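Quick entry between incubations.
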Amino acid sequence: RWTTGNIIEDAIGKVRTKVGAERVVLGLSGGVDSSVVAALLQHAIGEQLTCVFVDTGLLRLNEGDQVMATFAEHMGVRVIRVNAEGRFLGALQGIADPEAKRKIIGRLFVEIFDEEAAKIEDARWLAQGTIYPDVIESAGSKTGKAHVIKSHHNVGGLPETMKLQLVEPLRELFKDEVRQIGLELGLPYEMVYRHPFPGPGLGVRILGEVRKEYADLLRRADAIFIEELYRHDLYDKVSQAFAVFLPVKSVGVMGDGRRYDYVVALRAVETVDFMTARWAHLPYDFLDLVSRRIINEVPGISRVTYDISGKPPATIEWE
Ligand code: XMP
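Done. Structure below.
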């Protein structure tokens, strides 16, 4: 009978047999799958594991520090954090088209990951958080859903002498099992049950051109929304929730003065498969509170709207 405990034991045994005493590289994103792989490999091979965490500058408030705290500080995982905000923002300058942004972010991500992986001496294996549904899906093409690292199987940018073989310890598991394993291995509940976050991150939640100023405003608004969802026990009742930055200015009044500032949209959906979704009917009082907090606490944002579009016809993300 398969229990979480013996799924873990089995996976650990297989990894040890496979990689022996050789070194393994893992791209850590902070998402559930790569996090569980990191925790599992830490248990299985400890010091042989090096994680590369690319901070794109398009992550949520304090996300990079949280990833480092969870893995490097608390679990003793060797993690190389690459602060690449400048490179990402530079590459995205002047680019407004969503698909062009996705391509730039994906390409740069792979490039930076490869640069770092190539510096890890004697690395022979590339670990990935591929799970069973990814294996089934990989033949089909779910547009827009680009698992950057996952689709990057041959690690093209690495030197010939450094061809990495794949190790995918979650390949036979469903998401629920992956989450159970994560909890069992000591990952925080909020990390294991966090809403999905797209690979391109805030790059597709800032409409049009991505700028640091916009990303900073969006991070603060988004953090308030998420904090209040947790506080009101609503986080686990919605499938995905986030703020979107609209680079248009709207007039408002604040005290005696007029403000002419940016707009943020809140998005929250309920869905089982993310292929169709309904907008979450969050309580008006809750939305009122979130709106007030954002406008009061985030100078630069003067208006908050709530997205009441279903999928279809709208998508969950705005880009
Ligand atoms: P849409 O916006 O297509 O989103 O209704 C469906 C789900 O996919 C996520 N999403 C992405 N995930 N790279 C990703 O890794 C992407 O480019 C991307 N675009 C959308 C979205 O967050 C939602 O969960």
